[in-house]
Amino acid sequence: MQQEIWFQKYRIVKLLGTGGTAKVYLAEHILLNSYRAIKFISKNHPLYNLQQKEAKILKNLSHSSIPIIYDIEENEKGSYIVEEYLEGDTLKDYVRIKGLLLEDNIIRFSLQLCDLIKYLHSLERPILYLDLKPENIIVAGNTLKLIDFGSAIYLDELCNQKGLCGTKGFAAPELYHRGKIDERCDVYGIGKLIYFMVAGNSFKRELTYMDYSDLRKSCSKPMVRIINKCLKYNPTQRYASVTHLSKQLSVINKKKKFQNETSQSIRFAVAGAQTRIGTTHLSIRLCRYFIHQNIKSLYQENNTSRCVETIKKRYQGLRGDNGIYIINGIPMLPNERSTNEIPLNYPVIIKDFGCLTQSNIREFLEAEVKILILGAKDWELHHSEQVLQMVAEYKDIVYLFNYVDGKQLHQLMSSMDRRICYRIPYEPDPFKQPDINCQELFQEILGLTVF
């Protein structure tokens, strides 16, 4: 049987598959003797005009996880998108064939997805994908490729779009309940794919609350928390962006490297918008948390309060080892000691900067994890606004509020431009072993349980 020739250069080999809006064919470029995939969208399809936007979107994209678009053709029957032919299985088939994936592979694939979606979100005209599902992803070797942009849309066209759609069981619930559509929809989509790779299946319905405790047999606790955070029914409770999600995945990914390189310390910088806002209290609580996790940590006084000296005077017979005093089980280094002489056998160093100022902001920003405590009372807001201006261009700072409830935090977040914000659980004794609320806070915002 003679094979069809399309557009005088493509020999149609076979039909690869049929989707809801298109048929995909395997074709051979006659002159170049190489394979192409051709997606045909019929003009008779009711969503033909909507699907044409896929070609317009794809032709301007360039990313290793997006197939190369070689050509776009059109005739009286419909539109034809000629793109790179990918040999591999869909993620759905890949998981079915392989069974449950190792967490290392899941993290690697998840980081690739984050990198791709971050690329789409950071374009001059940001794009929301909205339909992340296993059938739309090809596993080509060790690389994921996204093959269907039929539901993607430019962010600036949302107000003109009435019929947004995605695949139920994977798409964010707000797509079907007239909620606000933004990049957190794709955060939800990535979370569903991570869940699928961990559990080997997806959800059949949307609920306002879901229990992921069953996943703990298949993946680590940090991964369960990431899935839980991504799949919050309320978008405001998810990661504010794919960048935030990617950072949490990266923390897990660095676990083995951290364990193997004990000579390197991770520095946590804690500063406040004003004096007496609780930086020392929180820093000690952080140290206690790490010690509770059997991780050596050091409290370093990077301010002029002389709190370590004051505490030390209340205990008789305290002796310093290399200038470090063990107080209530926590190693504490006074400000007078040179930072160049800190022993290297502390995997974690908590640096208490006190009030953030122009003189210490540079060192604060050099830390791997940066925490800034803000006040929310009427007499504190002026200080908070000033310090926010100082760090406005930095997106990787975690902001904590003292003495606010959930409702107040929600109101504050509306003016925080999607920064990472949490409230500090009340605990009058910083030396006390952390309760569940404190543990969950540190685990979520810092990813510390990977140590």
Automatic annotation (TrEMBL):
Q: Please give the GO cellular component terms listed in this UniProt entry.
A: autophagosome; cytosol; membrane; phagophore assembly site
**Entry binding sites for ATP:** K39
Keywords attached to this entry = ATP-binding, Kinase, Nucleotide-binding, Serine/threonine-protein kinase, Transferase
MF terms per GO, please? ATP binding; protein serine/threonine kinase activity
Residues of the Protein kinase domain: 10-252
Which residues fall in a coiled-coil region?
Answer: none
Q: Which domain of life is it from?
A: Bacteria
Q: Which Gene3D superfamilies match?
A: Transferase(Phosphotransferase) domain 1
Q: Which Pfam families match?
A: Pkinase
What the entry lists under PANTHER family is as follows:
NON-SPECIFIC SERINE_THREONINE PROTEIN KINASE, SERINE/THREONINE-PROTEIN KINASE UNC-51-RELATED
Q: What is this protein called?
A: Serine/threonine protein kinase
Could you tell me which species this protein originates from? Answer: Mobilitalea sibirica
